[in-house]
Write a structure and sequence with these properties.
2 domains; alpha+beta; EC 5.1.1.7; Diaminopimelate Epimerase, Chain A, domain 1
Length: 330
């Protein structure tokens, strides 16, 4: 039998599969097929998820393992901040280390265990980088500019300004008022830019942000390859950087920023060093279920014999979310 985990960061939900625990690792086509099946709300497990996180060995210095992110549609994401926190916790528990690196598609990222956000809410800080603004890295085109920082784009939405940042996942960000936040605009724009379009040929994560107070945001994201999610870690990180750049009177570099989202809240810290940016993403790494399944069934993409055990961590996380409601959120 092999153990999988159902996990979440800010209710951004995933399954974790540790390839190193298998006698025979799943091939890439098998991983994609499993990801599409297990995350499906109707026919998958536990009402599905937003993706599959695949852990494997790494031969890079100071790294405890590698992470691959497979979205619900089978596409590969270059990074996932919420997912990285849960993978970091898994590797920390497995190897007994609280500070190390994790290999991701584009870079080896520093991670470390943090003080718990609340009782029985394990918390990790993960590095979000590299950061670029160049259109080739996102990529985007046909917008008449090589970088898009706090600029109006009438083709996207009237009266809104947009910032495009790669972290390295591509993100398009706009700061909006409460009415726009709750309108249909985000869903319409997210769908438009992730269907075939002349602006973002590979699609893009789209986030709307509402400034609540000094160093305080609410962020909602339409995620590439997924759609609306409870939270997007790299989206909240990129939005925090845009917050510091575009609204310096309301946001501070190197200070903690509280970022509320539909799934809860994380903390971020934006660093600027010699025109190079990085972000710390700090939040929960919750394990909700343990799943035992025969290894042969994983190769066959058969979930019928999965044995599921619930942990006690989700009630603790929900108590944490309930406590947030006592804080001022417009």
């Amino acid at each position: 039998m092999v153990q999988l985990l159902k996990v979440h960061g800010s209710q951004n939900k995933f399954f974790i599969l540790d390839q190193t625990a298998l006698q025979t690792k799943l091939s890439q086509p098998e991983l994609v097929a499993l990801a599409k099946h297990i995350t499906e709300p109707e026919t998958g497990l536990l009402d599905g998820a937003d993706g599959l996180l695949v852990i494997d060995d790494s031969d890079h210095p100071d790294t405890l393992g590698s992470m691959q992110v497979i979205n619900t549609d089978g596409s590969i994401a270059s990074m996932c901040g919420n997912g990285l926190r849960t993978v970091s916790r898994y590797l920390s528990d497995k190897f007994g280390e609280d500070q190390f690196k994790v290999e991701t598609m584009d870079s080896d990222l520093h991670v470390h265990r943090e003080a718990d956000l609340a009782d029985n809410v394990p918390t990790f800080s993960v590095e979000i980088s590299p950061v670029t603004f160049a259109k080739e890295t996102l990529p985007f085109d046909n917008l008449g500019t090589d970088t898009l920082i706090n600029k109006a784009v009438p083709e996207f939405a009237p009266d809104l300004k947009f910032t495009a940042i790669s972290v390295p996942n591509p993100h398009l960000i706009s700061f909006v008022d409460e009415e726009t936040m709750h309108s249909k605009t985000l869903g319409q724009l997210g769908k438009m830019l992730n269907d075939p379009n002349p602006y973002f040929p590979d699609g893009v994560n789209v986030s709307f942000a509402q400034i609540l107070d000094h160093n305080t945001l609410f962020v909602r994201t339409y995620e590439r390859g997924v759609g609306f999610t409870n939270a997007c870690g790299t989206g909240m990180s990129a939005t925090s950087l845009a917050f510091c750049l575009n609204h310096p009177e309301m946001a501070d570099f190197d200070e903690l920023i509280s970022v509320y989202n539909p799934g809860g809240m994380v903390k971020t810290r934006v660093h600027s060093r010699d025109d190079t940016f990085s972000i710390d993403l700090i939040g929960n790494a919750t394990f909700t279920h343990k799943i035992e399944i025969p290894e042969a069934d994983l190769h066959a993409n058969d979930l019928e014999h999965a044995q599921i055990t619930e942990t006690d961590e989700q009630p603790a996380y929900l108590r944490f979310v309930e406590s947030l409601k006592n804080q001022l959120i417009k």
